[in-house]
Every structure is written in C-alpha cells, then in structure tokens.
Amino acid sequence: MSSSGLARDVNAGLYWTANETGDRGVVYGLTTTGAVRGTLNYRAKPVDVEGLAVVNDTLYVGDIGDRTRTRGLITVYRFDNPRATGLTVTYRSYDFAFRDGPKDAETLLVTESGRILLVTAGKNAAIYAGPRQPSRQVLNRLTKVADAPDDITDGAFLPGGKKIALRSNRTVYILDAGSYETVVSAELSTQPKGKSLAISLDGESLLLGTQGRNAKVYAVPIPTKVTPSASPSIDAQNEEVAGMGRRGTLLALGLAAIVAVVAGVVAGVIHDR
Predict the structure, then answer these.
(1) Does residue 122 lie in a domain region?
(2) Which residue range forms the structural domain that includes residue 108?
C-alpha cells in the first residue's frame, strides 16, 4: 500500500491522506507534528483512490484510478464536516464517466462552488469537468475542457481559487483556473516516483510527496515567476526556500513521518535547497 495524496484541512488544522489500493474505506487525519489524530471510516470498498481535496469544511475522496481503462464508472465520495474521530461516518457519493471513454486519472480538483474536475494521467493528458451541480441519482458525465501537461500525478487549487498547481515527477505547473493556461512552471529536483501535491496549512508552500519505500516529502516555495529564457528550477530558489523557516521544515518532517505510518513505507524529508 502507498499514500495516494495529501489534502490540507485548514479548519481542522490537519492533513488527510488515504492508501491508493488494498485498503478499506478509510482516510487518515494527520497533524503537522507527525501524529495520527485519527481516522475517518466509511462503508465502501474503493477500487483505486488517487486524489483528495478539501473545500471549506468538506472532504472529497476520489476513487478515480483506472490503469486498465476498463471502469464503466468512477466515484467521488463527499464528507461534510470531516473529523478524525475513528468512527464510521455517513457520506455522499457521486458516480462519473468520461464522455469519450474510460480514462486513468490521478488528480482530483474541486472548485469553491463544489464543481469536480479531474486531470487524466499519462500522455495526451486533459482536464475534464463534471456538472456544476453533480447528481447522486444519475451518472454524471465528465467533459473535456482543456489540454493538460503530460504525466500529472496530483494537483490542488492555490489559496484564493484563481490558480491551480499541478505536478509531474519533474515539474510543477501553475495554471490560470479560468483559462487553464500554464502561467508558471518550475523544474523539480530529481524525485523518484513523485506522487502527491498539497498546499501547506499556512498557504505559503507546496508539499510534494513520493511513493513507495524510502518515500520523502519535499517542502518547496510556490513558483511565482518565469525568467524570459526558461522556467526557473526550484533548486534555484534557495533564498525563498530557506526563508520558510523552522515551521515549514517541521511541517514537512511531520507529514513525512506520518505517511510512513499509514502507507507502510520508510519516509524522510528533504527541505529543497
């Protein structure tokens, strides 16, 4: 098993994560100090959880993976007022299907109004949008709204909701949330099996997680500008990273340690320099 992603919950002051496959319906609540605050359990058997998102006081868990591209439908679970109490809770679920056939997706995005977006994985990637108000009674259709960078493994809306951060194994992209055009991109340091992306609780940095054994969580600044000749490497932004200070370091360290607990991996942290 391995962690499928991270999502910050500002109201609860924690992060949520879930195992990708081989787990029951459970989401783990993680503190910034590395402690498991508790779990959120639900009576479902997800096939391949690949993305999590929190909007205000609502948690979304995306059972959206489909590596064989054979699933007739995928499901997004919604939890209102989520709390890591260890109890079994009720939920709402929404079933989706891509209009142009099954797709593998690893990225779940949710707008402030509750509209669900998915970014497909691999080559020829694209952003798909569900209905503005998804239905629980009928199958919701996902419609392509834009092309996306290839090999995206996770993403999140930046604070304010006007920009989207997406990541591949090698690059972070910042997109305009209205046009879906890339406005900033930055190369990442080598990160084998790069997987998750989350916004830090203070909104000041990105947390980038890896997958599998010896997994690490990187804390890096949110890219803000591009040089005329090329996208800046996050390696080159040393002053900004160093300026995050002790709080940012401890934040990433705690998450790395706790991902090791819930995902069964050995984890560490690299504060990118």
Answers:
(1) yes
(2) 7-265
Contact 178, 169 (CB under 8 A): no
Residue 271 domain-assigned?
A: no
CA distances for 194 relative to 68, 167, 173, 207, angstroms: 21, 9, 14, 11
Note the pTM of the prediction, 2 decimals.
0.85
Residue 166: its H or E element: strand 163-167
The tokens for 105 are 């997706």
**Per-residue confidence at 267, pLDDT binned at 50, 70, 90?**
very low
Looking up residue 60, the CATH number of its domain turns out to be 2.120.10
Instruction: Say if residues 40 and 29 touch (Cβ distance below 8 Å).
Output: yes
Tell me the Ramachandran region of residue 246: left when phi exceeds 0, alpha when psi lies from -120 to 50, beta otherwise: alpha
Average pLDDT of the chain, as a whole number: 83
What's the helix, strand, coil split of the chain in %, to 5? 10, 45, 45
Q: What's the number of CA atoms in the CB half-sphere (13 Å) around residue 192?
A: 5
- Compute the distance between CA of residue 260 and CA of residue 268 in angstroms, rounded to an integer: 9
**φ and ψ at 182, to 5 degrees?**
-75, 125
Say if residues 133 and 145 touch (Cβ distance below 8 Å): no
